[in-house]
Amino acid sequence: xxxxxxxxxxxxxxxxxxxxxxxxxxxxxxxxxxxxxxxxxxxxxxxxxxxxxxxxxxxxxxxxxxxxxxxxxxxxxxxxxxxxxxxxxxxxxxxxxxxxxxxxxxxxxxxxxxxxxxxxxxxxxxxxxxxxxxxxxxxxxxxxxxxxxxxxxxxxxxxxxxxxxxxxxxxxxxxxxxxxxxxxxxxxxxxxxxxxxxxxxxxxxxxxxxxxxxxxxxxxxxxxxxxxxxxxxxxxxxxxxxxxxxxxxxxxxxxxxxxxxxxxxxxxxxxxxxxxxx
Length: 278
Description:
It is found in: Cytoplasm; Nucleus. By secondary structure, this protein is mainly alpha-helical.
C-alpha cells in the first residue's frame, strides 16, 4: 500500500549533522541544574490587570530564560524521540511525517511540559514609548534589514508573547496538573494530537484518521478501567485537547527557543531533528 512506503532521502546525511537542540543540551557553557518544580507565579505576576483592559496585551519575558529554555529544549527532544518510536508513525512517508510534526510540535511540547511538570516564571517587559517606536521604524527604513537577535540576548518587545498568551499556556498546564494525568493518558493524548487527518496536503488521510480514532478509543478504555468512579474524566481529558487549540505555535517558539537560539526556523530544526537519531 502506498501509505506504508517510506521515502526519507535526507536521513542518509543526517548523521553528519548534530541536532541544534542536542548541541544546546550538551553545551557546557549553558549548563544549568536540572529544572525541578519551580515556584509558581505569585498572584498578579505575569497576569493582566483586571482594572485595565490593555493589561492582557502587555509583553512578558521569561524570568530565567536559560533554565526554562533548556528545560523546554529537553522536552522537545524527548517528545520527538517519542514520536519516532511510534511504529505507525514510522510507516508513513517522510513527507507525511513532516506535515504531522510541523503542525503538532507545539501542542506535543506543551503536553510534555505538563507531563514533566516544568514550571516557569515571567516578568513584564518594558514597552518602548511611541517616540521610540517612530525613531526605530525610521532607522530601520534607512538601514539594511536588521538581523535576528543573537542567542542569549533579549529581543525586542514586538516578538515577546503577551500576558494573555502566557495565561493561556499556564491555564493549560494548571488544568493538566489538576487532573493528575497518568503516563498512559499522556501517551494517548499525544497520539490523538499527532495523528491529525484534517491537515491539508496529507495523502494517507484514512490511515491517519484510523490511528487517531484508535488513540481516542484506547484512552476511553483506559479511563473506564482505571477511573471507574469518574465517568466525566474522558470528557475532561478532551477539554485539555481543546485548550491546546487556542495556543499559537509561534508564541511557544518565541517564548522558549528565541532567547537561546535566536531567530530560529522551527521547520528546519524539526526536519533536522526528525532525520537524526535522538
